[in-house]
Design goal:
It contains 12 helices and 31 strands. It is α+β, with helices and mostly antiparallel strands. It has 3 domains: about 300 residues, Aldolase class I (TIM Barrel); about 80 residues, Golgi alpha-mannosidase II (Immunoglobulin-like, Sandwich), CATH 2.60.40.1180; about 120 residues, Trefoil (Acidic Fibroblast Growth Factor, subunit A), CATH 2.80.10.50. The chain has an 8-stranded parallel beta sheet. It has a 6-stranded antiparallel beta sheet with strand order 9-10-11-17-14-15, covered by helices on one side. Helix 8 links the parallel strand 4 and strand 5. It starts with a helix and ends with a strand.
């Protein structure tokens, strides 16, 4: 059984509690500057399609196909050999060895072959005693790097490795322990003198640490979620398995972490692997591009359809992704049905993505001012999919199919930073009082009340995606909430229990609980608690934004 499938069994016991924090407005930490990863890496990884079923011939064939298909010329560089490449034991000196049956020529020879194609060589390892496949008993041995960090780093450098994927595969370990352990390999790689891109995953069968800190001081790229699966959306928020839209929900708020040398990694791509519709695959690639994510293909490069190649080799989206400024697109508008992301580019242009996450076609619009463009009577829009050019006096709009994404490169005028979502008060129709975080108390579990509207920050609520945020916290419905459960504020974690829908009757419905934000017992006095109740559209469940 493949290790990803085995994860499902353990993941059921590792429910995401509402304590996983996202600090969406945090400024980037000092990036680890090892001279690589100045733009997100582009390449191919063996895991999504082949799991443990890899060998020397397969990897060489993928390198050949990366060249013959034009992927290399489009910017894809890394050929990454994922788990199950190693012999189950180290040699008598403690050195890692390639599996002699699967890789009879050895790992250095494989690296030489990849380099000979004008490509770069990537490999997989784990920081504890076992790799992920070994942890789940789907591959023999216990050859993780624990206690061998310096030795393994030197071995990788000797083999000509250019990219290390380092995967924490254990439910154990605090974040501080993870940081210290990942830093051992970071420092060991640096000591080799070889520029090796360092990719870490702190989330495998672990409490989801990706959103809980900026890992830019530790690695070049860091996974923000559990493993991606070949589906559009699952019931998970940040637990195994995750669909494309689930991952977008978690990754978008982390835009402030990205900068040259360090990028959020929402996992490898599923483009070209079936199941997803053509629209969903295009949206998947477009959102990865605008989120400045690593573009690591996971399909069989030897049998790509023309449609798959058109998506993966789109030069305009690749240029947006690889822009030297290294900015991740930030959300400038959004609700339960749509998101608008804007990504400032080095030449002064701005890329804008209009993402329809609903199940029906809809028109999505924004403005030049909202994405940071001012000072011109007209702006030029280049459609990233067709290459066609149009102009606008300020409105940027498109009819977008369900699960689709329109992307434009906007030029003209002067460029500032995109406008982040505006905040507003939420006014209860029954009392005319505002939803209020009492005494600006940001302790997790604080229950909002109604209070005389005063415009203070503890009464200002920002719609960001499907969340409602105040004082850097998200409005949260406890997992498993029933009628009468309190509504609370909590660290934002991307969960559906923190997602809300503004309904046409003025109610605000929790996406997970299907319960509405309610003023307790229709009371109107200052300090009345708010809670969750069956949606009735009663006046004490009606709210307006002001």
């Amino acid at each position: 059984m493949h290790s990803r499938r085995l994860k499902t069994m353990l993941a059921a016991a590792l429910l995401l509690l509402p304590g996983a924090a996202i600090v969406a407005t945090a400024s980037p930490a000092q990036a680890w500057d090892n001279g690589v990863g100045r733009t997100p890496p582009m390449g191919w990884n063996s895991w999504n399609t082949f799991f443990c079923n890899i060998n020397e011939s397969l990897i060489r064939g993928m390198a050949d196909s990366m060249v013959s298909s034009g992927m290399r010329d489009a910017g894809y560089q890394y050929v990454v050999v994922d788990d199950c490449w190693m012999q189950s034991t180290r040699d008598s000196s403690g050195n890692l060895q390639g599996d002699p049956t699967r890789f009879p020529s050895g790992m250095k020879a494989l690296g030489d072959y990849i380099h000979g194609k004008g490509l770069k060589f990537g490999i997989y390892q784990a920081p504890l005693d076992q790799t992920c496949a070994q942890y789940f008993d789907s591959y023999p041995g216990a050859t993780g790097s624990q206690g061998h960090e310096v030795q393994d780093a030197r071995q990788f450098a000797a083999w000509g490795v250019d990219y290390l994927k380092y995967d924490w595969c254990s439910p154990a370990g605090s974040i501080s322990e993870q940081v210290a352990t990942f830093a051992k390999m970071r420092d060991a790689l640096a000591a080799t003198g070889r520029p090796i891109l360092y990719s870490i995953n702190s989330n495998s069968i672990h409490s989801k640490t990706g959103p809980q800190r900026n890992w830019g001081d530790v690695a070049n790229i860091w996974r923000t979620t559990e493993d991606i699966q070949l589906v559009w959306k699952t019931d998970q928020t940040n637990g195994y398995p995750m669909g494309v839209q689930n991952i977008i929900d978690v990754n978008v708020p982390l835009a402030g972490y990205a900068q040259p040398g360090g990028f959020n990694d929402p996992d490898m791509m599923e483009v070209g692997r079936g199941t997803l519709t053509d629209t969903e695959q295009r949206s998947h690639f477009a959102m990865w591009a605008v989120m400045t994510a690593p573009l690591i293909a996971g399909n069989d490069l030897r049998s790509m359809s023309a449609a798959t190649q058109t998506i993966l080799k789109n030069p305009r989206l690749i240029a947006i992704n690889q822009d030297a400024l290294g900015r991740q697109g930030v959300q400038v508008a959004g609700d339960a049905n749509q998101r608008v992301l804007a990504k400032r580019l080095a030449d002064g242009d701005v890329a804008v993505a209009l993402f329809n996450q609903s199940n029906a076609s809809r028109t999505i619009s924004t403005t030049a001012a909202a994405i940071g463009k001012t000072g011109a009577s007209t702006y030029s829009l280049v459609d990233a999919w067709t290459g066609g050019t149009t102009s606008t006096s300020g409105t940027i709009s498109a009819s977008v199919p369900a699960h689709g994404t329109a992307v434009y490169r906007v030029s003209g005028g002067t460029t500032g930073d995109p406008q982040t979502p505006t905040s507003a008060s939420l006014v209860s129709a029954s009392s005319g009082r505002c939803l209020d975080v009492p005494n600006s108390n940001t302790t997790n579990g604080t229950q909002p009340v109604i209070w005389d509207c005063n415009g203070a920050n503890n009464q200002r609520w920002t719609v960001s995606g499907q969340t409602l945020q105040a004082l850097g916290k998200c409005l949260d419905a406890p997992i498993g909430a029933s009628a009468g459960s309190k509504v609370q504020i909590w660290d934002c974690n991307g969960g559906t229990n923190q997602q809300w829908t503004f309904q046409s009757d003025g109610t605000i419905r929790g996406n997970q609980s299907n319960l509405c934000l309610d003023v307790n017992n229709n009371q109107t006095a200052n300090g009345t608690l708010t809670l969750l109740w069956t949606c009735t559209a009663a006046v004490n469940q009606q709210w307006t934004r002001r």
